[in-house]
Amino acid sequence: KYAQKDILITGGAGFIGSHVVRRFVQTYKEYHIHNLDALTYAGNLENLRDIETSENYSFVKGDISDAGFINQLFQENRFDGVIHLAAESHVDRSITEPLSFVKTNVLGTVNLLNASLGLATKNPDFRFYHISTDEVYGALGESGLFTEHTPYSPNSPYSASKASSDHFVRAYGETYGLPFVISNCSNNYGPNHFPEKLIPLFINNIIDNRALPVYGDGNYTRDWLYVKDHAVAIDLVFHDGQNGETYNIGGFNEWKNIDLVKLLCRLMDEKLKRPQGSSEKLITFVKDRPGHDLRYAIDATKINKELGWKPSVTFEEGLALTIDWYLNNQEWLDHVTSGDYKTYYDKQYQQ
Ligand code: NAD
């Protein structure tokens, strides 16, 4: 269906990026997928163990905030498109170290945009695809949904840095005519999620009978999307999205945090064959995060109507798949929690 292309995917060793890389490598044999990742604490090449020897895949280690390195990379390769996922992504870390979020999410994005301008002038089919979050829209009250026209109102250093990068992408489109698309997605969950994030953290803690720390009263609400459904949406937006447009991506799946934790506890008791109620006893309420947004919910009508996308699994199905994956991949989890995943790159790529 598509001509031969060289595609740069940034952040491909991370949670969502690894699912996007796998989908592109396996679906588009005629493409060459270049995965650029700095391998921070969140980047783990073990996520891509199954496809790393594919002929149409290569890995480049590097930091997007290093302009010299990025310019050199774009001079040596004639990328036809960039799918940009590399970011500092954890809200709690952004509260303690905001500058690293500015460096990677803002400066890193602008470096990629600058380098892309040169390629876009030579190749009319070039496209810059920026992956972003619904957190740029701020918080909702009890009702309403984020649409593509909701004004930006970020509340955390993380969402402020993502909002800033979204604006730079749009501005490069307006000012220099760079062909771009943006998507803003709700919370993802699924295999390969770093265990500092809620769902994998709680699965891990339940396995080990450790406390489940729930912020505040547990009433804040998020929309959850299975990560492989996000990867399908990214594929569709990259290929069929309109230049200069934004697409909201969400699971039509809103959950109060406490209800999500109770559902997870019930499913874990079933999977681990523990008496119902054992995991719920581990719930402990802890002091709320500062600036914690009450509710996010996405209206994904546009991508549904224009590109025909919708989630393929229900929340309960997706959670069951996720729990099975964590139970069957204890080695991955052990490596991540002990820090051993860091030696994987040295062993595989440095010999
Ligand atoms: P992640 O933290 O799991 O992965 C980020 C990846 O980027 C890691 O592999 C890391 O090594 C790499 N990276 C970080 N700094 C880098 C740098 N300076 N140079 C090169 N690589 C660097 O994040 P994720 O959850 O997979 O999120 C991916 C993207 O999707 C982010 O842009 C995030 O804002 C966005 N997003 C995430 C969610 C979610 O629920 N996780 C929802 C919506 C949007």
UniProtKB/TrEMBL annotation:
SUPFAM superfamilies: NAD(P)-binding Rossmann-fold domains. Its EC number is 4.2.1.46. Gene3D superfamilies: NAD(P)-binding Rossmann-like Domain, UDP-galactose 4-epimerase, domain 1. InterPro entries: dTDP_Gluc_deHydtase, NAD(P)-bd_dom, NAD(P)-bd_dom_sf. Its cofactor is NAD(+). GO terms for molecular function: dTDP-glucose 4,6-dehydratase activity. Residues 8-320 form the NAD(P)-binding domain. It catalyses: dTDP-alpha-D-glucose = dTDP-4-dehydro-6-deoxy-alpha-D-glucose + H2O. Keywords: Lyase, NAD. It comes from the Bacteria. GO terms for biological process: nucleotide-sugar metabolic process. Belongs to the NAD(P)-dependent epimerase/dehydratase family. dTDP-glucose dehydratase subfamily. This is dTDP-glucose 4,6-dehydratase.
